[in-house]
Specification:
The chain is an all-beta fold. Helix content is about 0%, strand content about 45%. The chain has a five-stranded mixed beta sheet, with no helix packed on it. It has a five-stranded mixed beta sheet with strand order 11-20-19-15-16, with no helix packed on it. Strands 44-47-52-49-50 form a five-stranded mixed beta sheet, with no helix packed on it. A hairpin with a 2-residue loop joins strand 13 and strand 14.
Length: about 850
C-alpha cells in the first residue's frame, strides 16, 4: 500500500526579517523507504522578490511519519504589497497519493519603509565644450532602517540596487551626449546616519557631453532613476517619471547663450500689513554656461519692491495696500557681460487684512454754534448703513456721556457744551463684515462764541421767549402770517432754534424767487429758507437754501428759486440756521421775506425720463453735456450703457461761473434705480468746485447718474470717460530715424493730445530685449493726463505686454504702468496728475521678451481735442 502525503504550514503569518518559513510533510502509513515528494511554490505580492516560484523536491526519511523543511525568504528594503506563499504537493501516481491537505499557505508581512532618490535642482545647464556633466543625487532610507549589506544570497541582492537611465528630449544620444542605463549598489558603510536617524547618501553621476562644430540651438536630455530594485531588471519600454533631472546643452559655436535662472520664486502671497524690509520668496540664482559673469536685476516699475543685494531675495520697499494694488507681476532679469539677458516674472498676491476705520472731525477746536462734521474712512469699504453717537466729557481722559438725540454725522455745540470735549463714535459694516466701530475726539473743548470785538458775549441775555412786540408766529400751516406774490412779510425770531411759517399762494409751473433778509443790525446775522411746504404742509425735498454768504459776518440773505408742481397755498419756512445768534442781540431780530415771479427756462433734463449719453471716439468719451440746475431740488438724470469690467470717470464742473455747489448725487442700476451704489455720491459745499466719481460695474447694463446742486442754481458741464476702451487705428508717426536714447538726451518728442483721439499718436518699435524709447513731453501741473502705450492688444501694433515709466526733468522715475496681468494682449495705461508744470519724459518698453511696434498717446482729460503740436 502506497502512503498518502499531506502538508501543513509552521505558521499562518511570517514577518519578512524572521528568516525562512517552515513547512511539514506528513505520510500515512509510514514509508518503509525514503519517499521523494514533488512540490510547487507560488506566491501573491511581488514575484521574484520575496520568494521564488519554482518546482522542487523534499524527501521524507524511511521510517519517519513526517518531515519539516525551510523555504527561503528574501529580506530586502523594498516597500512591497503583502503577499501569501503557497506550497502545493504535485501528483505522483507511482510512489504516493495526495491527501486532502494538498497545500499549505503562510502570509508574508512586509516591514520595509520607502527609500527616496532626489535631485538637488530641476535643471542643469552645461556648455557643449565642457566634455562632461556631473549630476549630484541624494538617497534617503526612511525611519532609521539600515540600507542592507548587499551580500549575495541565493543569487539575490539582500539590499537595494538603484537603476538610472538617460533619455533624449531634443538632444541626440549618439551625437550630443553619452547614453547610459546602469544599475549600481554601494559598499557597506557608504551610508551615514543624519540627525533624524535616517541613513542617507549623496552620490554623483557623470555623463559625457560631445563637443561638435555645428551651430545649433540648445538641446535637452533627461536623467532619471527608474526605481530602487531588489535585483537588476530589464526596464523595457518604461515611461519617463516626472521626478527627473533635466540637462540643457548650450551650443558654443559662434553664439552667446543668455544666462539661465537656476532657482527663482514663482507665485508668492504676502499680507498687506507686511513690514517694509521683509524678504519674501526663495533667493534668485542664475548661471551662464558660456562662463560670463551674471548680474541679477529687478526691472519692474513697481516701487513697492526691490531686489536685496545681499540675499538676492525680493524685499518689500514700500508699504503695501490690498485696496490699491491687490496683485503684482514683478519682472527680474539675469544679464551676462556679453549682452545676453533672460527675464523671469514673479506673481505676488497681496492678501487683505481687516484694517480699522478712521473718524476725522472738523474742526478739532469746536466753537459754540459752529457745526462739527464727522467723516469715516475705511479702506475695506464702509457701507451706507452707519450709526453715529455723540458724547462729551470735561476731560480728555474722563468719562464721556452720550448727548441725547444726536445720531447724525454732524453736531452743532450749544452753550451747554462750552468747556466740554466732543467725541463722535460710529458703528458700521465694512467689506470684512459687520460690527466695526471707530471714534474721534476733539483736541480742544468747546469755546464760547465771540462777538465782533473778539470778546465773549456778556450777560444779561434776552429771555428765551423774547419776541419783540409780537406774539411768536407758529411753525405750521395755521400760521396767521401771509405774503402776496410781489410783496413782502416780516416778523421777529423768538429765541434760539425759532422758525416761522409764511403762507403764499403759488401757481403750478411758474418760477418764483423767495428771499429772506434780516432787518436788525445787532450782532452777527444769517438767515436761510428752511424749506418750502406743499398745501398739505409736507416739506418739499431740496427746497432749502443757505444764505448767500454762509461764511460772511452780518446782514446776509438767503434765497431759493422755486417752481411748484401744484397750484395752491404753500408755506415758506424761515430760520436763522440754528446758529443761536439771538443770544448776542440787544434788540428784536426782525426778518423780512419777499416773493417775486421770475423767468426760468424749462428743465433741460427732467428727472423722470433720463437722457441717454452716447459714447463716441471709439467708445471711450461722451461729448461734453452742458446743462442747468434750474431750481432748488432740480435733479438731472443721465443713462449710460456700461460694460462689465470697464472703469468710467464721471466729472461735473460749474460753467459760466454760475456759483452752483456741484453734486453727483449717486449712481444706480436702471433695474434698481432707488438703490444707490455705496460711495457713488460726492458733493462740494463751496461754489465752483469740480466733483468726480470713478465707477467700475461688475455687471454690464444701463446705469443712471443723477446730478444737481446742494445750493444755488446755474449752469454746469458733465463729462463721462470710459478709461478702459481702446482705439482701432493710429494714423501718424513722428519718430526721428534710428533708435531713441534711454535718457533725457532723447530726440523723441510727443505733444499733449498727440493721440488716437485726434489721429496723431506717435508710433515706434521695440526691437531688442531691454530696449526703452524715451520721449520728451511738456505737462501742466494740476491737470489730469492719460498716457497709453498700445500694441498687439488693440491691433495698432505688434508689441505685447507694453510698459510705461514717467520721469521728471532730471530723469528720475516718478510713476509707471505695466500690463497688469498675464498674456500678450495687455497694454500699459496710466492716468495721473503731475504736481508742477515743466518737462517730463515717457519711457516705453516691452515686458519680458516682448518686442514689436507700438503707438504712444498723451491725452489731456480736461481738453481732449485741442492739439499742442506746432502747425
Amino acid at each position: 500500500m502506497i502512503p498518502t502525503v499531506t502538508i501543513t504550514a509552521g505558521a499562518t503569518t511570517h514577518n519578512e526579517p524572521d528568516g525562512p518559513m517552515s513547512f511539514t510533510l506528513h505520510a500515512s502509513p509510514v514509508p518503509a523507504n525514503n519517499l521523494e515528494v514533488q512540490l510547487d511554490s507560488r506566491q501573491t505580492g511581488v514575484v521574484f522578490t520575496d520568494a521564488i516560484e519554482r518546482s522542487f523536491t523534499e524527501t521524507i526519511p524511511a521510517g519517519e511519519a513526517s518531515y519539516s523543511f525551510d523555504f527561503i525568504i528574501v529580506n530586502d528594503l523594498v516597500v512591497e504589497p503583502e503577499g501569501v506563499v503557497t506550497i502545493a504537493i504535485a501528483d505522483s501516481e507511482a510512489t504516493y497519493e495526495v491527501g486532502s491537505e494538498s497545500e499549505a499557505q503562510t502570509a508574508l508581512i512586509d516591514d520595509d519603509v520607502p527609500i527616496t532618490v532626489s535631485w538637488d535642482a530641476s535643471t542643469v545647464h552645461v556648455s557643449e565644450a565642457a566634455g562632461s556633466v556631473t549630476v549630484p543625487f541624494f538617497i534617503r532610507v526612511h525611519d532609521g532602517n539600515t540600507p542592507g549589506t548587499f551580500e549575495d544570497v541565493n543569487g539575490l541582492h539582500e539590499g537595494v540596487a538603484f537603476l538610472y537611465t538617460t533619455a533624449s528630449v531634443t538632444a541626440d544620444p549618439t551625437a550630443d551626449f553619452g547614453f547610459q542605463s546602469r544599475v549600481f549598489t554601494f559598499e557597506v558603510g557608504s551610508f551615514t546616519v543624519d540627525s533624524s536617524g535616517d541613513y542617507t547618501l549623496t552620490g554623483e553621476i557623470e555623463i559625457e557631453i560631445t563637443d561638435d562644430t555645428e551651430d545649433e540651438p540648445g538641446e535637452t536630455f533627461v536623467l532619471y532613476f527608474e526605481s530602487p530594485l531588489p535585483q537588476p531588471l530589464d526596464i523595457g519600454d518604461t515611461v519617463i517619471p516626472t521626478d527627473r533631472k533635466t540637462i540643457v546643452i548650450a551650443d558654443n559655436d559662434g553664439v552667446n547663450n543668455p544666462p539661465q535662472f537656476v532657482t527663482t520664486p514663482s507665485e508668492l502671497s504676502i499680507p498687506e500689513d507686511a513690514e517694509v524690509g521683509t524678504l519674501i520668496g526663495a533667493p534668485f540664482e542664475a548661471t551662464d554656461y558660456d562662463g560670463h559673469e551674471v548680474t541679477l536685476l529687478f526691472t519692474g516699475v513697481e516701487s513697492e519692491f526691490e531686489l536685496d543685494a545681499a540675499t538676492k531675495q525680493i524685499r518689500i520697499a514700500e508699504e503695501l495696500d490690498f485696496e490699491t494694488v491687490p496683485d503684482y507681476n514683478l519682472e527680474f532679469a539675469a544679464v551676462d557681460t556679453a549682452g545676453g539677458v533672460t527675464f523671469h516674472t514673479v506673481s505676488v498676491d497681496v492678501t487683505n487684512v481687516d484694517e480699522p476705520g478712521l473718524v476725522e472731525l472738523a474742526p478739532m477746536a469746536p466753537e459754540e454754534g459752529a457745526m462739527v462734521e464727522a467723516t469715516l474712512s475705511d479702506v475695506d469699504g464702509p457701507s451706507d448703513d452707519m450709526t453715529w453717537e455723540w458724547s462729551e466729557s470735561a476731560a480728555l481722559d474722563g468719562s464721556f456721556d452720550p448727548i441725547d438725540g444726536q445720531t447724525e454725522d454732524h453736531y452743532m455745540p450749544t452753550v451747554d457744551d462750552v468747556g466740554m470735549y466732543l467725541r463722535a463714535t460710529v458703528t458700521y459694516a465694512d467689506g470684512e463684515g459687520a460690527g466695526k466701530s471707530a471714534d474721534a475726539t476733539t483736541s480742544e473743548p468747546v469755546t464760547a462764541r465771540q462777538d465782533e470785538d473778539n470778546n465773549p458775549p456778556q450777560p444779561p441775555w434776552p429771555p428765551p421767549d423774547f419776541c419783540g412786540t409780537h406774539p411768536d408766529t407758529v411753525a405750521d400751516a395755521s400760521t396767521p402770517l401771509s405774503v402776496a406774490v410781489g410783496g413782502s412779510a416780516s416778523d421777529d425770531f423768538c429765541g434760539k432754534d425759532d422758525a416761522d411759517w409764511v403762507a403764499v399762494d403759488l401757481v403750478a409751473g411758474q418760477a418764483y424767487r423767495i428771499e429772506g433778509t434780516f432787518n436788525s443790525t445787532d450782532g452777527e446775522r444769517r438767515i436761510f429758507i428752511a424749506g418750502m411746504h406743499d398745501p398739505d404742509g409736507q416739506l418739499i425735498t431740496g427746497s432749502h437754501s443757505f444764505d448767500g454768504n454762509p461764511y460772511g459776518t452780518s446782514n446776509t440773505s438767503g434765497y431759493i428759486n422755486f417752481r411748484p408742481t401744484e397750484t395752491g397755498t404753500h408755506y415758506i419756512e424761515v430760520g436763522d440756521m440754528g446758529w443761536f445768534h439771538f443770544r448776542y442781540a440787544t434788540g428784536p431780530l426782525s426778518w423780512e421775506v419777499e416773493v417775486h415771479e421770475i423767468d426760468l427756462p424749462p428743465d433741460d433734463v427732467p428727472g423722470v425720463e433720463p437722457l441717454t449719453l452716447e459714447f463716441n471716439n471709439y467708445g471711450q468719451f461722451v461729448d461734453e453735456f452742458l446743462g442747468t440746475v434750474n431750481t432748488h431740488g432740480d435733479r438731472d438724470t443721465f443713462a449710460i450703457d456700461a460694460v462689465a469690467g470697464h472703469t468710467y470717470y464721471i466729472q461735473m464742473y460749474e460753467r459760466n461761473r454760475s456759483g452752483i455747489f456741484n453734486c453727483i448725487h449717486g449712481i444706480a442700476s436702471a433695474e434698481t434705480p432707488d438703490e444707490r451704489r455705496p460711495g457713488s455720491r460726492e458733493c462740494w459745499h463751496e461754489p465752483g468746485w469740480r466733483v468726480s466719481r470713478w465707477f467700475s460695474p461688475g455687471t454690464g447694463g444701463r446705469y443712471l447718474v443723477t446730478i444737481g446742486s446742494d445750493n444755488g442754481t446755474g449752469d454746469y458741464r458733465l463729462r463721462v470717460h470710459d478709461t478702459t476702451a481702446r482705439p482701432p487705428t493710429v494714423r501718424d508717426t513722428t519718430l526721428p530715424p534710428g533708435d531713441l536714447a534711454q535718457d533725457t538726451g532723447t530726440e523723441g518728442l510727443i505733444y499733449i493730445n498727440d493721440s488716437w483721439v485726434t489721429g496723431t499718436a506717435v508710433s515706434g518699435v521695440i526691437d531688442l530685449a531691454g530696449d526703452k524709447d524715451w520721449f520728451r513731453v511738456e505737462l501742466e501741473g494740476g491737470r489730469r493726463y492719460q498716457i497709453d502705450a498700445q500694441g498687439e492688444g488693440s491691433g495698432v501694433g505688434t508689441l505685447g505686454n507694453s510698459k510705461l515709466w514717467l520721469h521728471d526733468a532730471n530723469g528720475q522715475r516718478i510713476s509707471g504702468a505695466f500690463d497688469g496681468g498675464s498674456g500678450s494682449h495687455l497694454e500699459a495705461h496710466l492716468v495721473l496728475e503731475v504736481p508742477t508744470s515743466g518737462t517730463y519724459f515717457i519711457a516705453v518698453f516691452g515686458s519680458t521678451y516682448h518686442r514689436g511696434t507700438y503707438a504712444l498717446s498723451v491725452i489731456d482729460l480736461e481738453d481732449l481735442y485741442t492739439t499742442h503740436r506746432p502747425s
